[in-house]
Amino acid sequence: MASVIDHDTRNYYVYIYSGLIGALFVTALMRSTTWFMMCMRASVNLHNSIFSRPLRAPIAVRQQPVDCKEV
Fold this sequence. Notes:
Blueprint: H1 7-56
């Protein structure tokens, strides 16, 4: 029976397959975490720039006379 794989060889392939699946899982987790951090950083920078521009805008103060009725 040449088609039968012995127990040690089968365990070797199972370990290789398990290692590849584990590496795939870790890579996917790192990719998701990196994407989340990149999106959060972009969002914070966008909101900071949106809110800081009106704060730094010049204020046009015009002194208009108050419409007071004389008694």
